[in-house]
Design a protein that fits this description.
This is non-specific serine/threonine protein kinase. By secondary structure, the chain is α+β, with helices and mostly antiparallel strands. The chain has 22 helices and 14 strands.
């Protein structure tokens, strides 16, 4: 201790007495110790005080910025907004506070650095982010206690019951999102219009931030919770395969010692590997043939389908002549053919076939052959063959519909207008066919590609639902979430197009679009000049919500029906195409309304959550503003209710 005090004394004190020799040595070492002290460099600023750093943990965000990355500004802004909400939920879990310390530094710069793409010049409306994060953004709600005081225990109990679970399953995520939407609409969004803002500190985001921190058992950083509440998908785990470096090094060093021995070893290895590759290819081909044979045998065993030969189909279609083509699509061509017994058929011939696609072909044959209904196209048989000239071939044979498709009669040039009784028969036939797929078939079948060209008409103009190439089995009514969205622009439901969420009500949406086409004579989607577009569902809703429902009906329709009945059909089409999945009826409910002699059941159509004429960017902004992946309506969640059969159908202006 004495030595330490001596070292700390001033170096030059001439009036002091001379020190003993040991003390002098210590005194001489003092400049050396002073040189060991770190000297701050002029170009290296001192580290900021922890109190001046952004309080959000941006490191926790990095695992959730999974590819593919958004390419347009609207999507990038949505991800940025949801990212801040996610980080606020982590902050709330750690501090029980919705707001950041007032002396925290800017969070916008770290956000820009964390995101793997540049934000738009407008910064997505985040320029005032720091001030907003440091003050209550939803009324006076600053802490968990404030939120608990504002939202009553009953509603918080619903949130806990719905969100206190693993949210990886779509039904569980939907239940949680519904509970959050109800709480937001009832207790947080009833104030000023600013409470409905889409920014991260607005009341729209607070329920999701609260649920991630307080209700979720795994916290907001759980991949399923982050995806359900904030639409942030975690990076998939990367597999690390063991390298072959030791073997390579062994061969390299061995080659230096014994070149001739290595050459012999490599020669033997090449011969063995070539033989193994040949044997593996033969085994794979045999396995593929076995699986294809098993698939075809299972189809033949469970149905009465005819297995046509390639020569039979070629003769029936006059050698696949161009004049025999009656339809074309991404899958290939449809030919008109005449079988040996004189029966007229339609032959669907797939293009770019290979043996690897036989499983998908077997799926379609299985789907079509498993259902029989007067409003579904019946399958006569199939053909699978390999020819030397044309390669692998796959075809299905169906009954020929002489009146073509609904698209031909609505939009083909020179076609006569359909009379109202014919349109009414077609609408009910479509609804019956789809209702059977959803409830009559076991397991239930989701068509996925309902459109006017897939509604065929027989000699009596009876509708037949066709083309099951994209159909999906839905066992036990479970929701199907697909990473690859399939369908046709203008007919695909919003939740399926945006999130890949596929349910039976995705077909209901497509049915509603076709029904509106049938009633109005207008196409579902038309691209206009200057980036504008005509969306049939938005146009119809704009008329319905103003009480001008009858104006949706095509002008000059032959033999029009009673106005109330035609308006009923328009309202069913508007309800079936509602952007909110749970606001739509089932196909059974829609069919019941259409078949009723009187105008049935009070049918209040909830207000739509997006502008009447919306582009894709507006739909995405509306979907992302809820923070839960659910399309949001200011009026709150309201499901379709079919009360009784004697009340009246009403539009929004009638209530």
């Amino acid at each position: 201790m004495c030595r330490l005090r001596l070292l700390l004394r001033p170096i030059s004190r001439p009036h002091l007495h001379p020190l003993p020799p040991p003390m002098c040595r210590l005194r001489l070492l003092l400049p050396f110790f002073l040189l060991l002290r770190p000297i701050p460099h002029a170009s290296q600023p001192a580290a900021p005080s922890p109190a001046l750093q952004c309080a959000l943990n941006f490191t926790a965000l990095l695992p959730f910025l999974a590819p593919p990355l958004p390419s347009d500004d609207a999507s990038r802004c949505a991800v940025a907004t949801q990212s801040v909400a996610f980080l606020l939920s982590l902050h709330l879990a750690a501090t029980s506070s919705f707001v950041l310390p007032p002396d925290a530094s800017s969070c916008l710069s770290p956000l820009r650095a964390a995101l793997p793409y540049p934000l738009p010049a407008s910064a997505c409306g985040l320029s005032g982010l720091d001030a907003a994060l440091a003050s209550p953004g939803c009324g006076n709600v600053s802490t968990v206690a404030d939120f608990d005081a504002l939202v009553p225990p009953s509603s918080r109990g619903d949130i806990d019951a719905s969100c206190d679970r693993d949210l990886s399953a779509v039904p569980d995520c939907t239940a949680c999102s519904t509970a959050l939407s109800k709480a937001a609409a009832a207790y947080l969004l009833a104030g000023s219009p600013s409470a409905r803002s889409n920014n991260v500190t607005g009341c729209v985001q607070y329920p999701s931030i609260y649920a991630g921190a307080e209700a979720s058992p795994h916290g907001p950083a759980d991949p399923a919770t982050a995806y359900c509440l904030f639409l942030l998908k975690a990076n998939p785990p990367q597999s690390h395969s063991s390298g072959a470096a030791p073997w390579v090094y062994g061969v390299a060093f061995g080659s230096l010692a014994a070149v001739l021995l290595l050459a012999a070893a490599l020669g033997c290895c090449f011969v063995v590997r070539r033989r193994q590759a040949r044997d593996a290819a033969a085994a794979l081909a045999a396995d593929s043939r076995s699986k294809r044979s098993q698939a075809m045998e299972s189809i033949s065993a469970s149905t009465t389908l005819v297995k046509f030969t390639y020569d039979d189909i070629k003769a029936a279609t006059d050698g696949f002549a161009r004049k025999s083509i009656i339809g074309q699509g991404g899958f290939g061509n449809v030919y008109k053919g005449v079988l040996r017994d004189g029966a007229e058929v339609a032959v669907k011939r797939f293009k770019n076939c290979s043996a690897a696609g036989d499983a998908a072909f077997a799926h379609e044959v299985e789907v079509v052959a498993s259902v029989r209904h007067v409003n579904l196209v019946a399958l006569r048989g199939y053909c699978i063959a390999t020819t030397q000239r044309e390669g692998h071939q796959r075809m299905i044979v169906c009954d020929l519909m002489h009146n073509g498709s609904l698209y031909d009669h609505l939009f083909a040039a020179g076609e006569c207008q359909l009379a109202w009784p014919v349109r009414q028969r077609i609408a009910i036939g479509m609804a019956r066919g789809l209702a059977y797929l959803h409830r009559g078939a076991q397991p239930a079948i989701i068509h996925r590609d309902i459109k006017a060209s897939n509604i065929l008409l027989d000699d009596e103009f009876e509708a037949k639902v066709a083309d099951f190439g994209l159909a999906k089995f839905a066992p036990e009514g479970m929701t199907h979430v697909s990473t690859r969205v399939a369908g046709t622009l203008g007919y695909v439901a919003p939740e399926y197009a945006l999130y890949g969420q596929l349910t039976e009500k995705s077909d209901v949406y497509s049915f509603g679009v076709v029904l509106l086409e049938l009633l109005s004579g207008k196409k579902a989607f038309i691209s206009l000049s200057e980036g504008q577009s005509f969306v049939l569902t938005d146009w119809a809703w704009s008329l319905v919500r103003r009480g001008r429902t009858v104006e949706v009906i095509q002008e000059g329709m032959v033999d029009p029906g009673p106005t109330k009945v035609m308006e009923k059909y328009v309202l069913v089409g508007a309800l079936c195409t509602h952007p909110q999945l749970h606001a739509r009826p089932t196909m059974e409910q829609a069919l019941k309304i259409l078949e009723a002699d009187s105008v049935p059941s009070p049918l209040i159509i909830p207000e739509r959550p997006i502008p009447v004429v919306a582009n894709l960017a507006e739909i995405e902004r509306s979907a992302s503003s809820s923070g839960s992946g659910q399309l949001f309506s200011p009026s709150g969640f309201r499901s379709f209710i079919h009360a009784n059969e004697d009340a009246a159908l009403v539009s929004p202006n009638d209530t």
